[in-house]
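Reader question, answered in our methods column.
A reader sent in the components of a multi-part assembly and asked whether the whole thing could be modeled at once rather than chain by chain. We filled in our standard form and ran it. Here is what they sent:
COMPLEX SIZE: two components
ENTRIES:
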Amino acid sequence: MVTTTPGAAQAEQAAPAHHAPTALEAELRALAGSVPDPELPVLTLAELGVLRSVRVSGTGHVDVELTPTYTGCPAIEAMSTDIEQVLREHGRDDVSVRTVLSPAWSTDDISAEGRRKLAEFGIAPPRPHAADGPVPLSLTVRCPHCGSTDTELLSRFSSTACKALRRCVSCREPFDHFKEL
Amino acid sequence: MTPAAVPPAPVTPASPETGTASPADGAPALHAAALALGDDALVLSHRLGEWAGHAPVLEEEVALANIALDLLGQARVLLSLVDDEDELAYLREERAFRNLQLVEQPNGDFAQTIARQLYFSVYQNLLYGQLADTESPLAPLAAKAGKEVAYHQDHAEQWTIRLGDGTAESHERMERGLDALWRFTGEMFQPVPGLDLDWQALREQWTARVTEVLEKATLGVPEGPQSGAWAAGAGREGLHTESFGRMLAEMQHLHRSHPGASW
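And here is the structure of the entire assembly that came back:
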C-alpha cells in the first residue's frame, strides 16, 4: 500500500550513495512505512515523509533511519517503537531506529495522498514552498470543511507545534492548518 | 534520543570544571559550543514552560508551550553531543551552565516574555542561519531548528507590534519589558569558542531587524548599555543572575530527589 513519496525519493538522493535497496529492504521499508503517525493516525509514516531508509546488514541487522518533523517532536519515540514492533512481528528482532536531522524534513515531503487525507480529516494541508522560510501568513489557507478561502489565523501554534489554529469566516468552524516548514 | 532504555547515569554532580568537555574528548571547542547553545535552548524552554497555566489566553499558553517544546528538542540534540543529556540538565550546578543571562531572566509580565522572545529569537535565527552554512557538526541541527525558530521570531515580532501599537497600557508594558532586558543583549554577540561565525555581522543584522520591528511597533530602541557593570559574556562563563538558582532548583529537584526514576 505504500507508495514512494516525492519527498522520500528526494531524501534518498540527498543521502550518501548506498547500494540500491534489495527486495527484502523494500519489503521492510513498506512495512515500516505503513505504520500510522501516532498524532495524525490518518497518515502513514511513508505519507508523512519521515522514513528515510531501511537497510539490512550481512548479519541480518535492520537499520532504520527516521527524521523528525520538528526537532522536539515527542512522537518520534512512539514512531520508533511502532516501527520496531511491526518489524518484530515480521520476524526481524535485530532492529535499530536512528534519528537523522539532515536533510531537514519539510512539509513538501508529505505525499499528495497524505495531503488529501489531511484535508479529509479536517486539517488544512501545508502549502508548497516557494522559497526558504515560512510561507507568508497572508497567503490564503482553504477551509477543509466548506472549501472557502476566507479564513483567518487564530494562533500560530495549535494542538501540536506543527499546526496553526485558524477559523473559517464563511462556515465559522475552527480548524487546524499544518504549517509549512 | 533513541527509544532504547538508557541506564541511569551515575549520580555524580558535575562540577564547574567538568561542565565543559575535557580536552581528552578530542573536541573541546565543539562541546563548548554545543553546551552554550544547548543551555540557551534548555533554560529558555524551562522559562517558557513556567507559563503553563498562567498565560493570558489559551492560545498563547499553547503557543508558548509549543515554542518551549521546540527549544527542548534542540537542547536534547545539542546536550547529547556533549554527554548524557539528563545528567547535564539535572545534575550540573549553576556555575556549570553556559547559557546567556538573557534566557534565564524571569518571565515578568507577558510583555516582558515577548521582549525576551524578540531579542532571543532574532538572534537565534541569525545564528542558526550562519551556522547551517558551515562545516560544523552542529550545522544539520542549525538547518533543522532554524526553520522552527523562524516561527518563534514571527510570533514574537507580531506580538511586539501588537502590544507596542496597542493601548497605552500595552505600549507602556512592552516598553518596560524591552528596557529591562536591554542590558542582557550585548552578551549574545560575544564569540563562542567552536563557532566559526561572523559575530560582527550577527550584531549588525540583529540590531537592524530589532530596530525595524520596534519602529513598526511605535516603540523606540532602548537606550543605555547593552551589558551590566560586569563584563558581557558572563553567562557563557558560568556567571548567572540571582533568579537562575531558584529556576534550577525547581527544574532539577525531581530528578535529584528521585535519581533514575521513570514513569
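What stands out: Residues 75-89 of chain A form the longest helix (15 residues). Chain A touches chain B at residues 68, 70-74, 77, 80-81, 84, 96-99, 101-106, 133-134, 137, 154-161, 165, 179, 181 (CB under 8 Å).
Send us your own complexes using the same form.
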